[in-house]
Specification:
alpha/beta; 9-stranded mixed beta sheet; 3-stranded antiparallel beta sheet; 18 helices; elongated
């Protein structure tokens, strides 16, 4: 048999069978798992399929596979695929675990439609850390969404919580970046092969995570991240997470799909409320109405996760903001610059309010603000709003 040509080790044959079924592009994972049950094991299913073509015909008739899958299997060169898979994994530092492997994430073993193989770069043991939290939300977040996500992730990682997300635009990328910058650990679940950074704007985050955190996917190397994959990968984000923090989401978004998976798994959902007239808050508010916990401070999540087993410390964001101002005070700046900086903090302040409260000429205020921005002490955001950097 083909598997005997590749290895005589029974466990390795089982791994290869899992990986090969996961390699098939035209069959849903739930159908793969049903086939395993029907034949008794992945190896038995593999052997039966390659021993007699009529088995494939029977699977098509039973609607277990499509005619396209039958053709894919018949045209597949297993030995060539296995040689390619092994070579690519070695060259690109990619690992792979299957449900029979010790390092397969235990949080995924009991979810419905669990991945039959997981490819990864980084530290797969991060999936076993004591506390994990999925952080998801809009791909086009407002400044408010960006700010509160950073604040929550900052304080959660300080408590040792591992952040799980999907490395998409917006809230996902902010969650990963905040975890990294604040010294925490983070896991990204991709919608394509782990050797492909998508979107490319996240290349710095991706590179750092492959080296010091964890990037994983149920798709083998070189598989493109197509739209169909993203809703499916959301079940893995939910499965790896002990709870789910939602920061901005429209009613019809991938975030809501992830939340549905989390609810099915009995996970707690934490919703950060937003403005009632903002479409990016509608999804979160719907989840809150359905029973998600409303959280307006990181301590709300921390208390729930750790069951009030310790006192909540002063918010890190407040401490961080005070340190910023103390650091600026040490620079011995001119009184006019100090006056403007004294009006700024981590929340955006409009230029009109700065002008109104500093008793200086408009032209002088604008000149000083521009100079502080150039010196990387102040940041201008969202049309004339400023924050302390």
């Amino acid at each position: 048999m083909i598997l005997d040509k590749l290895t005589t080790n029974e466990k390795e044959q089982m791994r290869i069978a899992y990986m090969w079924f996961g390699h098939l592009r035209t069959i849903p994972v739930q159908n793969i798992l049903r086939i395993f049950d029907a034949f008794g094991s992945p190896v038995a299913a593999f052997d039966a399929i390659y021993k007699d073509e009529r088995v494939l015909d029977g699977l098509v008739e039973a609607n277990a596979i499509k005619a396209d899958t039958r053709e894919e299997i018949l045209n597949d060169d297993v030995e060539r695929w296995y040689e390619w898979n092994s070579r690519i994994a070695k060259e690109r530092g990619i690992g792979c675990v299957t449900p029979i492997d010790e390092n397969y994430p235990s949080r995924l073993q009991d979810i419905g439609n669990k991945p039959v193989s997981i490819y990864y770069r980084g530290d797969i043991k991060l999936t076993e850390w004591k506390t994990t939290l999925g952080v998801i939300g809009s791909r086009r977040p407002t400044f408010y969404g960006k700010s509160v996500t950073d604040k929550f992730v900052n304080e959660l990682t300080a408590r040792g919580v591992t952040i799980v997300s999907g490395m998409a635009y917006g809230i996902d990328a902010i969650a990963h970046k905040s975890a990294i910058e604040h010294g925490g650990k983070t896991i990204a679940v991709l919608g394509g092969g782990v050797d492909i950074c998508y979107p490319q704007t996240n290349i710095e985050i991706y590179s750092e995570m492959c080296e010091n955190h964890l990037v994983l996917s149920e798709y083998e190397p070189e598989v493109a991240p197509i739209g169909l994959h993203f809703p499916l990968r959301n079940r893995i984000i939910s499965g790896l997470s002990d709870g789910l923090l939602v920061s901005e989401a429209t009613l019809s978004s991938g975030t809501m799909i992830t939340a549905e998976y989390a609810l099915d798994l009995g996970k707690t959902i934490y919703g950060i409320p937003g403005r009632i007239d903002d479409a990016s808050s509608k999804g979160v508010h719907k989840l809150i109405k359905q029973g998600a916990l409303l959280v307006d401070d990181p301590s709300d999540v921390i208390k729930d996760i750790f069951s009030n087993s310790f006192d909540i410390v002063k918010p890190i964001s407040t401490i961080s903001n005070r340190r910023k101002k103390n650091k600026i005070d040490d620079l011995n700046l001119p009184p006019t610059e100090k006056k403007i900086i004294g009006l700024l903090g981590s929340e955006p302040t409009h230029m009109d309010d700065i002008i109104r409260n500093n008793n200086m000429k408009i032209s002088e205020t604008i000149h000083i603000l521009n100079d502080l921005v150039k010196r990387d002490m102040v940041e201008c955001i969202e049309k004339s709003y400023y924050i302390l950097k």
